[in-house]
Amino acid sequence: MTMALLDPPLALRTADLRDPTECARIDAFVRDHRGTPFHFTGWSRAVERGCGQRAHYLVAETADGAIAGVLPTSAIRSPLFGAALVSAGFAVDGGVLGANVAVGPLSRAAWALAEQLRCPTLELRGGPVPGDGWQVDEATYVGFARDLAADDDAQLTAIPRKQRAEVRKALAHDFEIAIGNDAAAAREHYAVYAESVRNLGTPVFPAALFRAVLDQFGDAADVLTVRHQGRAVASVLSFYANNTVYPYWGGGTF
Q: 250 with 235: CB under 8 angstroms?
């Protein structure tokens, strides 16, 4: 006779993001489980420091203290959009990361936290659907991923024909490319990004968020800026995780 295996009991808690040892342990778990940049503790700390939105990083552990799953959340409060508990704040991904057994407990803990914080909405931006009763939006946020080609020519060929012609035209210009992640690179990027977002009629994130992100991610993030005659005309801030590049905040001037 065989007996069904019971899921192990889990302990749920909020991580102390001020503790470097705690953060290093969580980040190692995120790397091992191929999480996104938005699952790393540095993202939660950067959002809190740069925008003042409180981070609540939930962790599920087994009886022996091993991490079974994580759920980074930020309590977002906006005069325009109200209050919501979001995983992850200002990100395009998030949600529960880890073993299936942790999905339900972590999502329920997040909803209890949302009620405690008086946030009427809990939003998980990615990850598994916790179960019945959740509203799934498959249209608002759209992402894609593909392998990079082996060389520049092959990558250019992969671009659709009309866009490829525009890229070839741009490559013929005398542009200067600069890559960095220091304060000067951050300022140059923000000037281009802010102008581009403003021109689209969208509210601009504070410059402190970009500085905090670059500070938290170190070599796992950088800014690529295109200059023409010494003036920045396009710039993008990208993240690197699990052999994947995430071009995240970008823009260009007229």
A: yes
Confidence at residue 137, expressed as pLDDT on a 0 to 100 scale = 87
Q: Are 85 and 110 in contact (CB under 8 A)?
A: yes
- What are the residues whose beta carbons fall under 8 Å from the beta carbon of 250, sequence distance 6 or more? 193, 196, 234, 235, 236, 237
Q: With respect to residue 44, please indicate whether it lies within any of the assigned structural domains.
A: yes
Report the CATH number that the domain containing residue 239 is assigned in CATH: 3.40.630.30
Expressed as residue numbers, the domain containing 223 is 152-252
Q: Are residues 115 and 201 in the same domain?
A: no
What is each CA distance from 27 to 20, 32, 163, in whole angstroms? 10, 9, 38
Q: Are residues 82 and 26 in the same domain?
A: yes
Nearest to 101 by CA among 78, 69, 63: 69
Task: Give the pLDDT confidence of 201-242 residue by residue, as tens digits.
Answer: 988 999 999 999 999 999 999 999 999 999 999 999 999 999
In sequence order, the 6+-apart residues with CB closer than 8 A to the CB of 29 are 67, 70, 98
> CB 163: neighbour CB atoms within 10 A?
9
